[in-house]
Amino acid sequence: MGLIESYLIAIKQESDIARKIQYHKQISKILYGYGQKANLQDIEIYLIKHKEE
Fold first, then answer.
1. What is the distance between the alpha carbons of residues 18 and 41, in angstroms, rounded to a whole number?
2. Counting C-beta atoms within 10 Å of the first and last residue's C-beta, which end of the chain has fewer, N or C?
3. Using CA atoms, how far apart are residues 52 and 37, in angstroms rounded to an integer?
4. Domain boundaries, the chain
5. Cα–Cα distance between 26 and 44 in angstroms, integer?
6. How far is CA 19 from CA 6, 38, 50, 52, in A?
7. ∠ CA 14-3-43 to the nearest 5 degrees?
8. Given this model, what pLDDT does residue 39 score?
9. Could you report the per-residue pLDDT of 8-41, keeping only the tens digit for each?
10. Helix residue spans in 1-53 (DSSP H)
11. What is the distance between the terminal CA atoms of the chain, rounded to a whole angstrom?
12. What is this structure's pTM?
């Protein structure tokens, strides 16, 4: 089970609204990090292809 899935389960089980919000923020940070990594990989692939031409 991944980290995001763990946060989602915790959100369902948590009764404290402040903690639910914190879990949502953590999920957002993780997804943003994945997005940044994907963008960097796309840029690297583009640069490699452009260099070969």
1. 35
2. C
3. 23
4. 3-52
5. 27
6. 14, 29, 47, 50
7. 135
8. 80
9. 999 899 999 999 999 999 999 888 888 888 787 7
10. 3-13, 17-52
11. 42
12. 0.64
CB atoms within 10 A of CB 22: 15
Distance in angstroms (rounded) separating the CA atoms of residues 23 and 6: 10
Written as six digits, the tokens of 23 are: 């879990």
The rounded distance, in Å, linking the Cα atoms of 14 and 49 is 48
What sign for the dihedral angle of Cα 38, 40, 44, 49? Answer: positive
Q: Look up tokens 């990594």; give the residue.
A: 37
Q: What length is written for the chain? A: 53
Q: Return the residue matching tokens 């980290």.
A: 3
pLDDT for res 23: 92
